[in-house]
Amino acid sequence: MSTSRQRSPEVVITGLGMVTPAGSDTMTSWKAVCAGLPTAAPDARLQGLPVDFSCATSGFDANRLLGTDARRMDPFSQYAVAAAREAVADAAPGDGGWDPARVGVLMGSACGGLGTWLEQAARLAEARPRPVNPLAVPKAIGNMAAASVSMDLGLHGVSLGLSTACASGASALGFALDLLRAGRCDAVLAGGTDAAVLPITSAGFDRLKALSRRRDAPSAASRPFDRERDGFVLAEGAAVLVLEHAEAARARGRRPYARLLGYGESSDAYHLTSPHPEGKGAQLAMRQALADAGVSASEVALVNAHATSTPQGDAVEARLIEHFFGSHTAVTSTKGVTGHMLGAAGAVEAAFTALSIDHGVIPPTANFETPGADVADIDIVHRTARHAPVPIAVSNAFGFGGHNAVVVLGRP
């Protein structure tokens, strides 16, 4: 009997769907990040707060897109369903292309249906002229984005809600890769979603000194790696990626955007909100991801950084990137355009990374002008998009509680 390790089946990305501050679909969002157009602006929902601006979803009309079903969903589920519909249409499985019992749904979210909880708590705190909505709990609980996608598309495979804070979307991609390698699914819809642009989150993050207070110029507030960065900009939205076996995609003539080569997942086990100052947990996740993908650091052409625009987080990540890749790998952070979409961020940025591989275009880091003195010597793409082949790329996602997720993508 052979003792050689069985080769894992090749997993590819065949469909993309997005709802972001840069656009309510994938290509609109992609064009905006490639143009480096920041989306932060005053937000009426946050009026009167110390930080009263955000990166809000652009052009998203839940009633138009989802019809009467929208009333039964919190916005975090609405975003997920809209993105999933676009992703499946993009993957074009065709009639009978997938067995619904073999298609999984993995959706990450940091906050779940927080807006619904708050709305219904306010009703309860009133003199009770209006009762709490009977759908309050099923709209708000954290699994409902995955459940809503499964119900909307009639998918009967594994359905999971994941929460690793701001790494949630990337974690969903990693666990989806495991399901496909193990033969548990033929295809998986994996991604992340959050709808947490709310007074409570703005006030809470501001009290942590995590948000930019650049109220005089919101569009310049999200500035990853820049010397003048002072915090992130709260954002919302979703992304869903269709992952499937390369053989199945080839059989129906679907050219993939990229391969999902590997991932790494670790915990800092260090602090509620701060990354380990030496980035030890992130280094572990990076080593795991590269080993799982079977590639060396020298082969990586692009890093889509988590880089949220916070002083400490960006500095730690820049040192991480320099440690592994030196100054010869291109680095970008699309959060300069979109802001920080919390649990959706890892999925959105992995989708942008797949598009960079497909198009040979690296979006610029919006608002980056001068590197901070604490930012290592790395090649940050800025001002304009860079046209260059991207055979292999890494996308980072890090979250409160010390969650680290790194995915490696490659040219199909």
TrEMBL record:
Asked whether the UniProt record includes Mitochondrion among its keywords, one would answer no
Q: Which UniProt keywords apply?
A: Acyltransferase, Transferase
**Family membership noted in the UniProt record:** Belongs to the thiolase-like superfamily. Beta-ketoacyl-ACP synthases family.
Q: Which domain of life does the protein's organism represent?
A: Bacteria
Ketosynthase family 3 (KS3) domain segment(s):
8-411
Which source organism?
Answer: Streptomyces galilaeus
Give the matching SUPFAM superfamilies: Thiolase-like
What is the protein's given name?
Answer: Beta-ketoacyl-[acyl-carrier-protein] synthase family protein
